[in-house]
Amino acid sequence: MKILFVSSVILLPKFRDQDLFVSALKELDPSFLGMTDWLNKKIATKGGAKIADSQLAYIFKKQTARQLFNIPTFELCNFQNFVNFVPMENFIVSARKYRPATFETVVGQQHITGTLKNAIKNNQLAQAFLFCGPRGVGKTTCARILAKTINCTNLTPEQEACGTCESCQSFQSGHSFNFHELDAASNNSVDDIRSLIEQVRIPPQAGKYKIYIIDEVHMLSTSAFNAFLKTLEEPPPYAIFILATTEKHKILPTILSRCQIFDFNRIQVEDIANHLAKIAERESIATDNDGLHIIAQKADGGLRDALSMFDQIVSYTNRNVTYKAVIANLNILDYDYYFKLTDFLTSGDVSNTLLLFNDILNNGFDGNNFINGLAGHFRNLLVGKDNQTIKLLEVSENIKQKYLAQSNGANLGFILTALNLANQCDLNYKNSKNQRLQVELALIKMCHIPSVIQLANTATDQDQDKKKTLVSSGQAEVLNTKDQRPEVKDQSLNTKVANEAKPITQTAAAPSVANQEPQKPEAPKVSAPPTSPIKIQPLPKNIGGSLIPSLTDLNAGNNLDDEDKGPQYVRGNEKQAFTKEQFIACWQQYAEKARTADKIHLYTLLSSNEPIVDGVHITVLVENIALEATLQDEKIDLLNYLRGNLSNFDIQVFAKRVEPKQSDRIYTNKDKYAYLVEKNPQLEEFRKRFNLDLLP
Q: Which one, of 1, 176, 162, lies nearest residue 74 by Cα?
């Protein structure tokens, strides 16, 4: 032992190469040959990993002379230190280490693997396959498994490769002559395809098929595709082509028509999480179910992306994958922020809402990512409202229970309105110069949603009570009227009453005609009829318990009684004749009144075209729907003004659509010259005399 120690120390500065160092140790002391086995037995008792001769030499290199001489025997050594000194083996990422080797181990593509296994079983293999789908879903993996399985000489009853025959062994070691994989990204020319075609002509020396996998086939040039068409359509019976791509739309239709197309799906979140849990169990890695779900969600259906993130987080957490570590490493906003923020929004707490958003920004999160995450949170709350849609929640069981609890306590109108506001904020975020203010405004609006809903419900209840009161009072009035009305049996009595009432009406109307003055007459007052019909006020259209109130209608509940208080027609019996000049003067006065009131559209309508006067029928010419709508909105006030000033209550105003006048515009030099010649014909004589040409 001591001779070995001394020799290792002596040889340390001389031999820097590890292999030479091992050889020298073996030559100096033959006991080195059995020392590795003896040491491995001791390490195994402590639960450590086995080491090789080269690794033992590495340990000696790491020790100093003092450390070596102070250790009397290997039996008294700290074996954990020996394990730590062992150099790290070449690390293999999980995406390669746990790459599926059989159809059974493929994750989330059962519709693909089942079809391929049945095709192998029934001997119905096509000459060309096209595997297409997103990245990291198993296209190349399935292509390799298919190539390995169809050449296996000892298939299992489940149509899986045995892994032990000569073909499988050569495939696994990468020495199979029947398997060729081509990267179309770097071999996309016609010459590369010609070389491939020449290889296809050679039959397999061993095995049944020669398989050609062309990855990223969409990168082939158009000429390469055309050169490949004939071989792809009619290959030799032993040749099978497997094409893989992420962009099927870039492949020529002539290529697509010659292949069996298999569309790979994005892998479900639950499937990815379960696969990561199995790998963690094999690698003795402590995991958190919530953390694995976050990784699966971040991967967006790609298992390779999920495994890459998993390896990264394992290194970051020192083999302890937790939810907090995952969101910290992947820069994901914690669910707790959204749950806490929703509580603030439903309670209308604007201050705490803005403070929480400020904390989120201070933690380094982007406002756009925040608003997108908030929209996704509201979507999950909406999904949790219905038992049939709960399965759409792609979260862990713990987070799902939190969503269900908050969803039951949140109002449906609040969720829908908040979701709409978040989506609108996301659309306007990139175009906004003050992006933070854009998000803060959306949050403030969300805080006022509960008060709007409460106001709408209160207004609805009051309106319902008012409706019931009007109906009941109306029924009572009708009953009282029936009871108090005397029955008139004699028809002559009715005639007499009518004749006595008629002169009174004529007498009352006569002074209004006789006493007319040249001054501007006042509009006649409308007297209320003796009995008004019972009117039941309808419910407002935009207020209801199940509808979403608008944030712009905060005072909608206070304006319910103003629905029928709009402009009304003035009634009268005057029918005084008027001339066209009188009407035009009155028309222009109303136009000036509209201009003074800043009603520009109405002023333009009244002043642009002179109306057509046909007795009491006035026709206004309009050029588009907007002007027609403007006239319709102002029709009541206009008629009241005209009827009152002209003392004629039979005046009616109508709108007539006409085509707008097309004015010829001068663009070219020839048009300009023709216009000038039309105004001054001598210009043409001047041009001819001096032999001038027009500019093009």
A: 1
